[in-house]
């Protein structure tokens, strides 16, 4: 009787990446596929420009997540001087 054949893909890793992957195994013979499936990948941080685009789109769609008071506070903060106290 034959087991189910899963498609595979061969990849190349730099030595330091391979060592990190191998070190993440729970047991010595754990398949690398299991290690990768368990991994938590950091999402890239949202930049200020992306936040601004998001808010502008929400406002165009009339679904702005901010109250008028919050928008006024943001405008005031933007207008305020931001020079360093050490200058």
Describe the structure.
It is built from four helices and no strands. The protein starts with 14 loop residues before the first helix and ends in an 8-residue tail after the last helix. The protein is elongated, with a radius of gyration of 25 Å. It has helices spanning 15-23, 32-38, 48-60, 68-79. Among the domains are: 14-41, no CATH class; 48-79, no CATH class. The longest helix has 13 residues, at 48-60. It has 87 residues and is mostly helical. Helices cover 47% and strands 0% of the residues. The model has no long low-confidence stretch (mean pLDDT 84).
Describe the SSE topology.
Elements (H helix, E strand, L loop, with lengths): L14 H9 L8 H7 L9 H13 L7 H12 L8
Key words describing this protein structure:
47% helix; 0% strand; 87 residues; 4 helices; elongated; mainly alpha
**Average pLDDT value?**
84
Q: Percent of residues in helical segments?
A: 40-55%
Per DSSP E runs of 2 or more residues, the count of β-strands stands at: 0
Q: How would a textbook summarize the main sheet?
A: none
Helix/strand-derived category reads mainly alpha
Distance between the termini: 77 Å
Radius of gyration over alpha carbons? 25 Å
Please state roughly what percent of the residues sit in beta strands, choosing from under 5%, 5-15%, 15-25%, 25-35%, 35-45% or over 45%.
under 5%
Flag low-confidence runs.
Answer: none
Give the helices and strands as they follow along the chain.
Answer: HHHH
- DSSP helical segment count: 4
3D shape: elongated
